[in-house]
Every structure is written in structure tokens, then in C-alpha cells.
Write a structure and sequence with these properties.
heterodimer, A: alpha/beta, Alpha-Beta Plaits, Rossmann fold, 3 domains, 18 helices, 38% helix, elongated, B: alpha+beta, v583 fold, Enterococcus faecalis V583 fold, 39% helix
Chain lengths: 514, 473
Amino acid sequence: MSVTALVKKNTYIDSVSLMSISTKANAIAGVSQAFVAMGTEKNKEVLKSVGLLAPELEAATNGDLMIVVDAEAGVAPEELVPAIEELLVRKAPAGGAADVTYRTITTAAQANDGANLAVIAVNGAYAAREARKALENGLHVMLFSDNVPVEDEVALKALAHEKGLLMMGPDCGTAIINNVGLCFANAVRPGTIGVVAASGTGSQEVSVRIHALGAGISQLIGTGGRDLSEQVGGVMMIDGIRALAADPGTEAIVLVSKPPAPSVEKKVLAEIATAGKPVVVYFIGGSEAAVAAAGGHFAASSQDAALQAVRLAGDPEASVPGLDVARADAARAGFAPEQRYVRGLFCGGTLCDESMFALLDAGEDVWSNIQKDPAFVLAAGSPSKGHTFLDFGDDEFTNGRPHPMIDPSLRLARLVEEAKDPSVAAVVMDFVLGFGAHEDPVGVTIPAITEAKKIAADAGRHLEIVGYVLGTDRDTPNAAAQIAALESVGVTVTRSSTETGQYARAIVRKGHNA
Amino acid sequence: MSITELFGSELNVINVGLTMFEEDLEAQGTKVTTLDWTPPGGGDPTVIAALDALEAPDVAARIEAANAEAVERIITAQPMLVGFGRALDVVPGMTPTTILHAGPPITWERMSGPMKGAVLGAIVFEGLAADLAEAEKVAASGQITFSPCHEHDCVGSMAGVTSASMYMHIVRNETHGNVAFTNLSEQLAKILRMGANDESVLTRLYWMRDVLGPMLKEALEIGGPVDLRLLLAQALHMGDEAHNRNIAGTVLLLQALAPSLIQTSFTTEQKKEVFEFIACSDYFSGPTWMATAKAALDAAHGIEGSTIVTTMARNGVEFGIRVSGFPGNHWFTGPAQKVVGPMFAGYKPEDSGLDIGDSAITETYGFGGFAMAAAPAIVALVGGTVEEAVSYTKEMAEITTAENPNVTIPSLGFQGLPTGIDVRKVIGTGILPIINTAIAHKDAGIGMIGAGITHPPAEAFAKAIVALADKLA
């Protein structure tokens, strides 16, 4: 007989559990006889009667746990102790895990091994902290929240870069990872074109145009609107390009942003040379020469970006129809002489930008809450003047209220206001479909459209309302149904963000047809 | 996982803030876990800054080490009932004119109705005044030293009023050597600790001083120490949570004491009175478990850098906590809260006094409200279903540091008690500790009118985290 005995001082296990543990201990290979029990007089007597009361057990008390192992011939009993101690560790808790709710990212991540990405949409004052927690727990982050201090963004992106994680945002509204749309995204076909975008609606537009051309998206990485600023330095866009360059599922890359800070643009373009894949660069209003010099493919518009990417990813025959000039001419002919201005009321910042640039390119003055020229900046609360293009998704409008893609009330009121202004020829609006968006953006706007048209008609004017539906046949509701609803109330529907700008320009500038 | 690995994996999302994103992700067949999220620290920027400061890696590492030590002490503490004795003889700092009370420090003028009632009764009991009217003058005269039980190694149930001649449990933590004290259960509803103070209350107190206390003292001398943690663990397996349900614990304690009680030098009639007194209320062992918890938690107090809560106590006006990293008597306080729960016939919620008593020491250790899952018989206190009781215990795991393997809950797969409340986790999750407790009438002289659950005020934890950040970061 080869016996080992030990006392775990001050360790209590109830007698019923101990019976079960002893049973299991006796089933361990190599165990001749095992005894796990509290150090009560009664138990010690039992041990004594079977000749197992080793001297070290004499001192055990009621509160001490005794382990005694008699090993089979040729087995050292000490080697069996760890397996018995293993039995003392409690098993998984009873009850289903389905009803568990977690209060913090840390507890949720610890309980869910497979978790790999956090979508964070909390008040900006608390957002950086939550994002940091997610990164510290090894999660990739999509940070939807805006109004996050830029210093926090810099710190978060440095941490993510160090850990090799995505830090999409803050103020990142759109991403498509592994064909799953996150936050505001459209249902597009899986494909081989990867997108890195500092602009949410810009990337939605590019992805939807790519889908319309019959191609699809591999990954769409959002960076947040400030990523290409001097302070942030394009950390996420550069990491995004590298990730897509390494991704075997990606054949061509599209970059989407408002014009970056010059030093950052240089760094980002430098990545093109080493990407090993064609890179299309759509920096709204950016320089063709710099992109070409870096070996990239310059895109002059969102439509152009999609088209070039589709051609580079294997469909050289892809094409898009040109502007319907006759339709623009007909609209222009219906305006009274004082109807000279376009008012753009947008949910999507990049859509607003692109249409505004179409007019600026033609030499028009445009007032806007997102104007870069301080002389033409219009505060969110101010009335329109001349050509006015408003991005209702900008921080100034959204601070303390939902994004206009969810809550359209501000934009609806503004539409009715614009209809009262006799200098207005046309109102241009976007309708963004997809995940995260309003369930029926056209339907909720139709009463205001009807009212606006009536106000103008009662004053003897034709008010041209131009609508662009950003969406696909896979979105809910689908784009065709929304377009039909707009056309039923006399809205002129355009086929892309790019065409929307072209059309707005054409109806106020004779001769500027494309 | 790297970005490349992410591209090759199934997306598995933790969603924070907007539930509509959860619906969109589920519609796309993606696994998503949405948090029940609230801003940390109630959204107070000062509190969040303090929490952030304590989460800096070097600071956090020091705290983790200190907390591991604190929790280890709570878990390994072995409180033994070693005797009974008069407060004047055994409690540190006790004098004939000292009256200890529950909760953080408070002056006579600011005391709640039930505490004033108990103090007046104690003054008469001690012979410091002839009647309650004179006691009122004595209480206000400055002759009485009022001091928190907790500052004298004691805990006191409800008003916690403890005076020199009262008999105390003497509980020694064999592992760490410290000793804790608490007085004896008065059993019924109309009792001193609940603010009652009429002749029937005083008569019982005299009998406890002259018969019950001395008999228990002698019994312990005959029978020797009783391992209280062992009994506590068994009581939880028998359906007690050892704060509001004590039926199993009382039977176990009696089982341990009975052989010695019958050997004492008292008359058979007196022994019969004692057995009847013990049998008349399940609460007999309630104070015993409080002293058990106190003996363990005092051993964990005063560890440099620790954010573990070692005391939660209420005086009926304020709720105070003490934190291990602040040695001695550094109280962080906020207003005492209402207690919500079933009430005795004839009483209404507006009759309730605010949360009072040192009994939250049980939750501080990890039983009481924290162990609701062990006590399905009293789920009426927390809303009525066993699932709710289980969820309370699971929730407490989110604000604690470890499981106590020595005291377990069978229905949760023998999960150990959620142990070591971490101020950082309370602030970070917005989950406040849950406390099971009795309800005393708001006026002096009436007594217990119900039982239920309550929480500490968030302010106490907010103050503690700011102080911890000042000290540690």
C-alpha cells in the first residue's frame, strides 16, 4: 500500500459535495482508494478503521479538508493529488447563459470569448472611455459617437495601432466588415473592392454605386471624419490600406475622404506605392496630379470612384449613363426670373459636399454650414441666402439630438421654409436607405414635399424638388419603391450623388450640362 | 485578433448604446451582445476622471495586488465564536457612559427616531436616568459618549445601540487574530434596536443581562469555540441568506450550543426560558453572522492601495462606507435610503424609517442580499420570483472581486459568495450593492414594521473613488 495524505487547512466543502468528489476521486486512473472529507472526529475514526489515518491527519479539525490517496502498485500517490484537487474546483454555474446581461464591455468581453468588435454609440463625453475599454479587451472598435475630443481620438488610435486593432471613429457612421453592415450601411453584394473612408455617406454612396455596377464590397473600413486631419495624422486610413493590401479577398482599393491635411495626404498617398493593388483615390476636390504621381487612380466624383474601382477589379466594360440634359433644360425653362437659387437640404455630409462643389466649380457662391471659406459659412440656425447647402448631419445640428437619418423633423421644417422664398428655384434632398436609417425616409418627407409644392404653386411658382435615393435593391425599403414614391409627388429623381450635383448645376447655369 | 484575423472570422459584436444597431446586426445573422449600459459614476465628470486615473496601468496593477490581498484575507478569515461577555468588560474603549450606535458618526440631535428611542431605552437600562423623560435630558446633556459600533470592533443590528451592561458575542478571527463583537438578539418586533423602549423592552433587556448572557458565557466556557464560518456555509446550503432569513443558522447554532447550555449552573427553569427565547424567533443567530462578517472584514481593512469596501453601515440618517485603502475610521457618506418591501399589517410605506443598522456588514462579506440565490424561500423581499433572486446574486458578481470558495450557493452550481466589493466596479457599472434589511418605524418607541431591500447612496461611492484617485493616482 502506497498512501499520501494532506490537510487543506481552513477549507470547507459541504458533505454532499464531498461524497460526490470522493466518488469521482476513486474513479481516477491509478487510485486504489481515495478519501476526501472534512477533518471531523467521525471522519477520522472512519479513516482509522480502514488504516488510512496518517499521522498528519490527526491534527485536522472540523474546518480542515483532508485528502487521502492510496495508489495502485507502481503509481506514486502524490502524483494523483492534483487530479483530486481539480475535482474541488466548482463546475460551471447552473442555468442558461442566454438571460445574462452585462453592464460593462470588460465583463461582456470576458464572458464571450468570441467577441471581436465593439460598436459604441454613447454620449461623446463617455465614448472615449468605452472605446479604450474595448481596445484593452482586444476588441476592434467602431465608435459611432461624435463630440469626442480630438486628443482622445489621437490616444485611442495610437493604442489601437499598437495593438493591431481597427479604431473606426469617433464619428464613424459606416462600415461593412465581413459583409455585415455596421451602423449606417447599405445591403450590397459581397465582392472584391475594399473601401477605406473618412466619410460615412461618401462611402455608402461609393458602395451603392459599386453594387449598381454589378460588383461588390470585400470590406468597408470607416475611419471617422477627422482621421486625415493634421492632429490625427491618418492613422486609421493608413492601417486600413495596409489591411486591405494584405487581404486576399480584396483586388482593388478605394479611398474616400474630404481633402486631407497636406502632410497627411502625402503620407496616405505614399502607401499606394506599396499596396500592391490598384488604389482609387476620391478626395473630394483633391488634386489629380498628386494622386497620379503617387501611382493612384484619381477619381473626380463618387460615381467616378465606383466606376474606376469596378473597372480595375475586373469589369473594364462598366459604364454609367450621362446627365439627362433635356430634363434639366425643361426644368430651367419653368422658373420665374427671380427664381435663381438652389437650396440643398442633406442628411449625408459627402452628398452635400459633392453637390455644393458642383456649383462652386461653376463659379457660384454657395453658403453652407460646412463651407471651408469662412466668408460663406452659414450657422445652423440662420436663414438661407443665395445658394445654400445644409448638412443636417453636421455636429452643429446633431448635438443633443438624433441624426437626421433617424429624426427628419428639422429638415422637414426647413423644406417648408425654403418653399416660401421666391428666390428659390430648386430644393435638392437626399434620402438615405439601409441599416440604421429611417424606416421610410421618403414616406416621412412626402407631406412636407406636398406642402412645399403647394406653397410655391399658390404663389405662382414652379418649385423644382430634386431627390436622390441612396440605396440598393437589397435595402429595406428598397430603392425602387422609394424612387416610385418620390416620382408620384412630382419629385425629379437623380441616379447618383454625382448626377445630383450635375443636375443642380445644370438647372441654374445654362450651358453647364455636365 | 489582428485585422487580418478579423477579416477571416465570424463577426461577434458587443453593442454599446443603441439597441437599433443590435436589431440590424441580428437581421444580418450576426451574433451581438448588447450591454445594459449607463454612464459610469452617473455621468459625473469628476467621478469618471477619478475612475480613469485609477485605471492607468501602473496604478491598476498596484490596486489589483492590494485587492487580491484584501480578498484573500476575507476568504481565509476563520471567525470563531469564543465567548460572551459584558460590553464594559470586553469591548475596546467602552465606558459606563458610552453608547455605541450603528452607522457612521452622528450626534444626538441628528439621530433618527428609532435610534433616539433606542438610546433613551439604553440610558434607563443602564440606570443613568430614572425614566425616559429624564433620559432625554441625559442624552442631550453631553454626559453620554456616542460613538459608532464600527469604531470599537463592533457591529450593531438596526439602531445598533450598545451600552456597557449588554452581553456581547466575542468572535475571534483565528487566521488573523482580530476580534469582533456584537450584542444579543432581542428576538421580537417591539425591541430596543428597532426604537422601542417601554417596560416590556427593558424587562427583556434585564433578563438578557442577568440570565441569557451569563448562561451563554458559561456555555461557551464549557463547550469551547464554535466555527462560525462552517455554520454559515451550512446555513446557506439550507436556504438562509443569513441576513433576513436565519432559520437554519439559528438551528445550527443552537445545535452547537445546546449540549453546553444544559451543563451550565443555571436552574432548569432558567434553561427552559433560554431555550424558549431562542425558539421564539429565527433571528437569534442574526447578530452572530454579523460578527462573523465583521471579524473577516476587519482583517481586510487598512491595506494600502486597496479599493475593497470593508464596511457598509447606516445610522438612519446617513449611509457610510469604509474602504480598505483608507485605514482607521475614514467614512464616505451619503443619505440613508428608503427600504422597499412587504410590511406588517396596519403599516404603510410612509411609516418607514430610513435604512438603518450595521447589518449590511453581511452584504459587505457577500451574503445577505448578495446571496439571495441561496434563499428562494424569501424571494418575496426582492419582487417574488426565484429568477429575480438569482439575478441579484449574479449582478453582485459584477461589482465584486472574487468568489469565496468556502461559502457557496448550491443552486448556482456551488458558486462562491461574491466577495470583495470594489469601489471601481460599483462606479464603473452603475450597479449598487443590494442590501436585505428590516424596516423600523420612523418614530421612537414603536419597533419593526417590515422588511425589504435597499441600496447604498451612490454618493458614498462617488466620494470614495475621488478620494482614492487623489491618494493613489
